[in-house]
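Chapter summary example.
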Amino acid sequence: MRAPLLLVATAFALGIFLGETLRPGFVISIGGLACTSFILAVCLHRGSRVFDDHYETCDLMMVVALITLVILSGALRREVQVCSHARAPGRGAGRTAAGYATGDLVVAPTPPGSRATGFTPGGIVLRLKGTILDIHRATLSPRHAALLAGFLFGEKDTDEELKEDFRLCGVVHLLSASGLHVGFVAMLLSGLTTAIGLTGYISAAITIAGVLIYVVMAGMRAPVMRAGIMFTAARLARCMGRDVDGRNLLGLAGLALLAWDPSLLFDTGFQLSFMATLGILEFTPRLLALGNALVDMLPGKRVEGTVRGAGVRSGPPGVIGRWLVEPVAVTMAAQAGVLPLLAYHFNEVSLIGIVANPIMVPLAEVSVIIGFISGLAGLALPVATEVFNAANAVILEAIIIGARVLSRIPFASVALPCQNLAAMALYYCIAPLIFYFLTPPGPWKAGRLKRIARKLGEWWQWHDPGDKIIIGVALATAFIILLALKPGAPLKVTFIAVGQGDAALIRTPGGRAILLDGGSSYGRRGAVMATLRRRVRRLDAIIISHPHEDHIGGLKDVIIKMKVGGIIDVGLEHPSPVYEKLLGLIRERSIPYLIARRGFTLRPDRHVTLDVLHPGPLLAGTRDDINNNSLVVRLSYRNVRFLFTGDIEIEGQRELVAECKEGGVEAEALRSTVLKVPHHGSRYSLDRLFLGCVDPKVAVISVGRNRFGHPDARVLERLASGGSVVYRTDESGSITVVTDGQDIRVMETRRLSSGEFAR
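The structure predicted for these 759 residues follows.
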């Protein structure tokens, strides 16, 4: 026992050291990893092997350890993708921000060889991926090509409307590279090797190599890496004539990934992937037994034989039932595994997914297989690609139509918000018992609980009292460290990628939600609602900076579909049909409506204030009075400030600076950590004096593909010379800034399709 204890002590010491020098999240993750490693070391101490499928104590403790790791580590409370792919001004500037932003953001050139380009193995794989995608873009319509790119590699070019349909249907996982996609690739490669007569180690080597190449192509995301590790271990075990157990393989994958990068524990994809897989492994056999028992009750003549241990009947009802049992069981099992996580992260659950998955997944599987074959065939025989993709276009269109139809069914998706960790932990304790008692009796079920209890008793008896004390102290210490270091809820500001427009969502530590502007009714329609549905159930306020369509066009859907506590507007007279209809809708819904001017303050949460700095008296006779009278709102949370500027132009900015100077608080009033660059970075959007007063560390430009030349090169140069790190929604997708009031973290969500264009 001394070796495992020494490893645990070293891990804790390392965690504390790294936590002090890098970031507190490492203390949590390494502490949790040490706790799990210790449990597994104890389980494996008596000779249990990773690939054995009969050692129930090891299985049980593996599951308990993984669930404990997720819950106790505060994984559901923290995001640690730190400054991902930050860029200097300009497209493809070739710089990457690294580290944890404390005070000043440090932007350093990417070290040579760190990118997977050139003739490195990674570069060759990624160039092959790019070539396959280019082949599909040349032979499919833009919408079909974007959808297939999502199916193949988890690319994020699918339009928001279609993505929303997939989300409501519960099949949005098809658009993100996951274990399902690894299964598609493994199935294709296994079929090809079998077809050409390869078996044994040669077939395994080719299949494993292909799967690992696909993992790289898919961006080495946690779900595909998890599936890649599990598949590789299982295939090697079978080649060696060993039995495998999915729960042990899942634990092996979890430990391997967390040892490689402990911060993956806080990744939503990691959590969903592991809990969905655990749900499938634990609940599918029970649901299959229950489903087959129900099929056996359908009318028809009973025939000899069994399907997974259950009697079957002939005739159409029985045939259809048997065909549906397994896909429905797998879908329900996965849903059971991730239900609390879906409620926590996305506040809703798809009910129609039980129907949609058995239909959509097989279609997507065929589409992926055809996509890989046609993409590879196109390297040598372009004509073959056109033939294959002509067939694939039909399948893709069927998937699009199916998603549209199913998503329109009433109650396809229901709201299910849950932020209570205790309730989530209780669910994971109760759900297995429910499935256990619902399952029909069978040989596997008899005495199982007794055997588990006996094994746990044996496990405890072969430790002397000293070891038991050490185990208890180690686990208690881990628990105390995790609770003590669990960070509080941060303030989050998401600059939503709405194309050529503006929209930002503020979420306070206390759970309040405020929307600043709502984007346009053209461009990326549905982006605001998609963001809101994933993150909030009610808006406490909507702030309208000014009544131009690219700031208010998307608010109609928001007001219709969500509860809104109040509207704060600048109250300008503007003869716009969109604005008039919006005001009419606000009156119709009896939503409180306030007009704000300089001096207005909103305090939605403790330590969180929103102050209106502009306008005071309305400006007149400027280049654009509507833009120059935009609401300028300063959001303050402890020592971090955000400045939202609407479309205020240079004349309005100079007036604002003058107003601040008159008050004698120039630097204090305007200085901010994060600046939402005015008017999409246009040539009139940034005055040097105004920029000097704000002195932002981070500048965010909300912009889409447009014909106006936004953002202007001189504005980008001005921001760069001022030392600001620039993020653009046309390059980075939606941008989220997370802060605890001292430090900030900037996260990009995705790249947008190049097919968007503002009218």
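To summarize the output: The first helix runs from residue 2 to 21.
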